[in-house]
Predict the structure.
Amino acid sequence: MTPERLRELAAELDRDDPLAGYRERFHIPRSADGGEVAYLCGNSLGLAPRNAREYVDRELLAWQERGVGGHFKHDRPWVSFHELFTDPLCRVVGGRPHEVVAMNTLTVNLHLMLTSFYRPQPGRFRVLVGHAAFPSDRYAIRSQIALRGFAPDDALVVASPRPGEHTLRTDDVIGLIERQRSELTLVLMDGVNYYTGELIDITAITDAAHRHGVLAGFDLAHAAGNVPLALHDWGVDFAAWCSYKYLNGGPGCVAGCFVHERHGLRDDSVPRLAGWWGHDKASRFAMGPDFVPIPGVEGWQLSNPPLFSLAALLASLELFSEVGMDRLRAKSEALTGFLDRALRERFPGRVEILTPADPARRGCQLSIRVKREAQETFAALLARGVVCDWREPDVIRLAPVPFYNRFADAQRCLDVFEAVASG
Ligand SMILES: Cc1ncc(COP(=O)(O)O)c(C=O)c1O
């Protein structure tokens, strides 16, 4: 397709986009020249929903006017504020009400989950992780392994792509689980990998783990709000995610956590780190000496949560409840598909897309290796107002987000590639 035809197509697709109006519900950053940027960086930090300020202001005002009274004498009492997240989080990750909670931050939640669900025994202590796991996850799991007295290098089993390939094959991961089954106790993988953008088959991997008595947990930092999830039905044991990427909760926002009800509701013997916010609500303020956990994942809470951060997240999640993951996903597939096809078609020898071409195997992010003038291309994208990021050694990540990106944003990115290619 010629650049002119691509431009026309982008305009047509924007005209016909049923979600086009949602862009106005977000603040779109502007470059120095005053024009809106093409923000393709929601994989790192999602944009601010316009309603976030009102939600945060409301709690600031309550603090101003009521002081400590805000905990109980307030139309959204802070003592139960986190319960407002149950319904919207259930929709985003496909959990049941006792299975989801907004608490802490992602790495903290991973540690809480590993404390509960990594239960190594001599002879059965191994953890299977994906090839390009995010560093924080590696640090967390290695430190947990060492804390339990095992050697991280020995205990970690890494699922890797085949030589010459960039992403994992589900059958290979399942084969590895089967080969390691007698020593494996946990699978901990990213739902969508931060580097390659690949979406793994969570349900097939969870089933394979369970067939061999292995637990399956997932880091959904790049999956939550990006792809539809059905954690309860898939039987996932636990999951954790941050809320500042596709969930648009703001920098360092309160994270999310899922514990399947088979552990959270039905099994009192799961060990955990305890704090007063996880204690039975009816008797919490009796300040008794013994910890009685709230049934379900709420029982993993430690501290009373940072309210202003939660307020911003609530604003964003209301938009998710309004639109629904299915409609977001439909636009996401069309938008990422448009960018993917155009890059492959227009620059065959120049760009290599590490992310799978199959929409079922990715979210909205494309990870691109530019074979010539990679740094120059990245610099040109930034200089022309296309906000994206670079991951060492040589990958540009582009994430057209269905909530606030237009096909015109993808087109703007393609225009920069054309300009650099033609010197
Ligand atoms: C996949 C993944 N895991 C973990 C983290 C760390 O998150 P946090 O700083 O919220 O603990 C990130 C941050 O970007 C991430 O992308």
Notes: The radius of gyration is 22 Å. The CA atoms of residues 105 and 291 lie 22 Å apart.
